[in-house]
Amino acid sequence: MRAVGYFRPERRQVQPGKRDNVVLMVWSGAHHWWLTSQCVGNVRKLAVALTVFGAVMSPVSAATASAATASAGTIPATTTSYYERTASPKTLYQQGEKAGKAAAQGIVILDFGRPGVDGPRFGMMAYSGAFVSFAAIETGVKSYIRAYYRYAPGYTKLNVAVGTNNSCGAGQPCGVTLSCGCPDEPPNFVAWGQHFGLTVEQLDNWAGALRAQYGYTDQVRAVAADDAEPAYDPGYQNTFDVLKGYANFVAGTFPPMVDFGSAESNYWTEAQLLQVADGFRPDVPMPQIYYANQAEQWAGLLHYAKTHLHKVIDIYGVLTMGAGTNTPQIAYADMLQALSSVTDQGTIPWLSTIHR
Q1: How many angstroms separate the CA atoms of 309 and 312, rounded?
Q2: Burial profile 14-44: b = 16 or more Cβ within 10 angstroms, e = fewer
Q3: Residue 90, burial from CB neighbour count under 10 angstroms (0-12, 13-18, 19+)
Q4: What are phi and psi of 10, to 5 degrees?
Q5: Is 195 exposed, middle or buried (0-12, 13-18, 19+ CB in 10 A)?
Q6: pTM of the predicted model as reported, rounded to 2 decimal places
Q7: Is residue 186 in some structural domain?
Q8: Mutual orientation of helices 62-70 and 328-340 as an angle, nearest 10°?
Q9: What angle do CA 292, 293, 297 make, to 5 degrees?
Q10: Can you tell me the distance from the alpha carbon of 301 to that of 267, in angstroms, rounded to the nearest whole number?
């Protein structure tokens, strides 16, 4: 199999009754290869095997997926993601320390909030309501990565995703008031997306340099993520502009943009939903599966891609939210069960729960 860019599946043409097995990106020095997956017999081993960095696995069949997930034998270990209220280096260091001590692998999302500006400074509006600049976010995420490197056991592999969302844009719902927009929005969302890309690239370069400087055997890569939900941008303009700006800056598949949003109907077309999940070259999908119907929505979207566009799209991860919603195990099983009627994907590499 030929070498390709960072965890980007090869574009596959659907043949009747036949499809290539899902492939997972692995890292080796400056190159990234797709390798087939192989199931491992327990959660701890599979948490290592089901990372994007390193393991070689072969897919389990859809027919055995439910039994496998029921026994928790093929579910990747759940990481902890955060809705960030601050970019405080101390707070982010504590989060990274916790992840390192837990030997977290796969992906963590550090969601700093919607796009925002403060005068000439670009950044995000954190979940406390405060503006945090990209410079502050970069400093905070460096603190997270530094702590993870310090406390993680050897040879762990983790994607640290700098997250944003598409809430509260001009003409979008805002609280109980419709079409109100929000203060402190970027005057140009394409330009904001380009600044986002620059921040993530700088973080990834720094993480690689830190690893080389201290000879760490762990591998941390910085990536981007967007909680893109159709109901918060019915016109699709701001979401499109951010993704376009990011993709223009990245000019390739790396660093990727992880879509950890939803796929409900009646707001965006199927083409727009697919553009967010897989349309721009850096984009890869990690659906939020808080409830069973969300897995069904994503399966319907992937069915549309397969039957109308002759594309098979792989799911990279599942995000859960905690109390009152699906457990990680149920969400993972729901997503695999929904996929079983559409594709032959038998494993999903990432699983995370996001907390406030």
Answers
A1: 9
A2: beeeeeeebbbbbbeeeebebbebebbeebe
A3: exposed
A4: -65, 145
A5: buried
A6: 0.80
A7: yes
A8: 170
A9: 125
A10: 14
| CA atoms of 88 and 116, how far apart (whole Å) | 18
Ranges of H-type helices in the chain: 43-49, 62-70, 89-101, 134-151, 189-214, 237-250, 270-274, 292-308, 328-340
Instruction: Evaluate whether residue 120 is within a structural domain.
Output: yes
Q: Residue 218 sits in a domain of what CATH number?
A: 3.20.20
How many domains would you assign to the chain? 1
> Token pair for residue 36?
């087939």
The letter for the amino acid at 95 is Q
The reported pLDDT for the residue numbered 344 is 84
Flag whether 10 is in a domain. Answer: no
Residue 99: domain span = 66-355
Residue 265 C-beta-side C-alpha neighbours within 13 Å: 10
* Per-residue confidence (pLDDT) for residue 197, from 0 to 100: 98
Is residue 99 in some structural domain? yes
Q: What are phi and psi of 23, to 5 degrees?
A: -120, 150
Per the CB < 8 A criterion, the answer to whether 290 and 308 are in contact is: no
Residue 71 corresponds to which tokens in the numbers above?
């026994």
Token representation of residue 103: 């030997």
Could you report the average pLDDT of every consecutive run of 10 residues in the chain (356 residues)? 31 34 30 28 31 29 33 78 97 98 98 95 94 98 98 97 84 50 85 98 98 97 96 89 97 96 93 96 96 94 94 95 90 94 91 95
Assess contact for 61 and 98: CB atoms under 8 A.
no
Q: Is 170 exposed, middle or buried (0-12, 13-18, 19+ CB in 10 A)?
A: middle
**Concatenated DSSP letters of 195-213:** HHHHHHHHHHHHHHHHHHH
| Secondary structure of residue 97 in the 3-state scheme | helix
Are 268 and 303 a contacting pair, CB within 8 Å?
Answer: no
Comparing C-alpha atoms, which of 139, 116, 138, 141 is closest to residue 126? 116
Q: Among residues 140, 138, 158, which one has the least CA distance to residue 149?
A: 158
